[in-house]
User: What shape does this take?
Amino acid sequence: MAHPGTVSMRKVREWACRGHVIEASFKVGACPRLAESCAGGGASQAEVIDTRWSFRQGLEGFPLIRLKASGALQLECQRCLSPVAWTVEVDCRLTAVGSESEIREVASPYDTVVGGPDGLLLRTILEDEILTSLPMAPMHSHCAGARPARFEVAPGASRPLAGLGALMRQSRD
Ligand SMILES: [Zn+2]
Assistant: This one.
């Protein structure tokens, strides 16, 4: 199965019972929310996220999914606004339930994913997990180390402190 978009809850339960594993690759450009957080809106995101989904039966009878994902994203450096490479490494465990009301029955320490009428949307789950793992303010290491005094403003970027220097000179005069 190359691109398992949606998996019905019946299938998820069946896979959990027999310890099924699926592997799939997701193009970043085909994941809208992920692409949005990439440099340039991800328009040219040919990068691929490789995923591995292991299903098994959880203690409470709910399917337990272990998701491992790896790949690379080009995020936007928050200081110089040019792309900065970010390595995706996700390894998480999720309890799958069929409805919101079932969440109350889950006592496991893992996050819960809720299957809609169509089942589980694997791409949405993947996007959620990667987005929560991304840094709040991605930055090149050399940009992160730069002192604000050497802050170079990219053309077209907003310059909230642009008038400050002039103000300070005025107050000294
Ligand atoms: Zn930078």
About this structure: Residues 122-133 form the longest helix (12 residues).
